[in-house]
């Protein structure tokens, strides 16, 4: 349900971006490509944020966690299971 809500929130922007396309098939293909690209960028950024947590060597061990949590909250404003925010919170509790 959260993925569908997120899709609905972005639908207006996507429709505006592809409003000048001539055919429904072209629109559908472009929409699918944009959604795939959004998912790929999101996964890549999540992986990068987690790598930053693992590689962090600064004075504030919470800094990379806070950065990751902020991104997740922005990327998944409705939260929910697909955000995996609870997993991040749980992992943060076990800092060494």
Automatic annotation (TrEMBL):
InterPro entries: Bub1/Mad3, Mad3/Bub1_I. Pfam families: Mad3_BUB1_I. Residues 49-96 form the BUB1 N-terminal domain. It comes from the Eukaryota. Gene3D superfamilies: 1.25.40.430. This is BUB1 N-terminal domain-containing protein. The lineage of its organism: Eukaryota, Viridiplantae, Streptophyta, Embryophyta, Tracheophyta.
């Amino acid at each position: 349900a959260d993925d569908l809500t997120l899709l609905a929130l972005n639908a207006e922007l996507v429709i505006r971006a592809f409003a000048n396309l001539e055919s429904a098939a072209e629109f559908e293909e472009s929409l699918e490509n944009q959604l795939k690209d959004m998912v790929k960028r999101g996964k890549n950024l999540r992986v990068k944020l987690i790598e930053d947590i693992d590689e962090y060597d600064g004075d504030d061990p919470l800094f990379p966690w806070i950065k990751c949590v902020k991104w997740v909250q922005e990327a998944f404003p409705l939260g929910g299971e697909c955000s995996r925010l609870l997993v991040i919170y749980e992992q943060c509790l076990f800092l060494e």
